[in-house]
Design a protein that fits this description.
Blueprint (H helix, E strand, L loop, with lengths): L2 H26 L8 H11 L6 H12 L4 H23 L8 E2 L2 E2 L1 H4 L2 H20 L7 H15 L4 H10 L7 H26 L4 H28 L2 H4 L5 H4 L5 H5 L1 H17 L9 H12 L3
Amino acid sequence: MSEVMQAVALRSGLEGAAALIETELDALLPVPEGEEYRLVEAMRYAVMGGGKRMRGFLVIETARMFSVNITCAARVAASVEMLHAYSLIHDDLPAMDDDDLRRGKPSCHKAYDEATAILAGDALQTRAFEVLAEADTHSDAEVRCELVLALAGASGPRGMVGGQMIDIVSEGKELSPPLITRLQALKTGRLIQYSAEAGAILGRASAPQRHFIAAYGRDLGAAFQIADDILDAEGTAETLGKTAGKDAAQGKATMVSVMGIDRARMQAEHLAKQASIYLESFGEKANLLRALAAYTVNRRN
């Protein structure tokens, strides 16, 4: 398949996955009639109707490679999008990055209020784990437990939250490339890696297959974050759907700040190509994942 055909197929795959995830989120987050309706409205505001759904797409596409039932894959994809949305809500709060714009619209705490935003983030996080634990997600309780354990590891103190802490305490400091790599691997990379692995967990993939998928997700996540840093430096709020130039304004150490844009772009491209190498044993079944790696470093938002 040519690169152009792969790009077209990827666009179609991303759009299809996004529509499927949106439908699943709608079903999993019904608005109650009681006084807590405002909370659920804020949850839905933050998680629905926006974003690339790359993490959810990774779940669905890797699950497809292992012949997983699409309904099961969609539930796990929706859960990881809930977890991701919770992190964005909290990341935008005044106590964190203090950002008023997310996905081209007011951040959750601006559309509602800070207290509601905090609670909406908390509720999305717990709902994500609840969905994974429900019997409809997989008939095998051991698989469900493995999904819960893997997501907890990717999002907790040794994953996303730990990376956020390093990011906060490092503001205004000069960091070495290895420390920046670790920060970004925890804050962004672990959840992307989990998203790739989740499909393999659902499909009861063999240990070697799991290893290759995890390695792909790890390098994809690293390439994605460097590309994000470049976009933050070069993009605008209109194209990004969020405030541009935040990293430099807040004194954050990124690969762009220590390597410059050109070298950082080369590093992202190297990581994307390396990610694709891990997919060789999967043959043509992994074409969309290869296309995703290329898209990750060439995207404009």
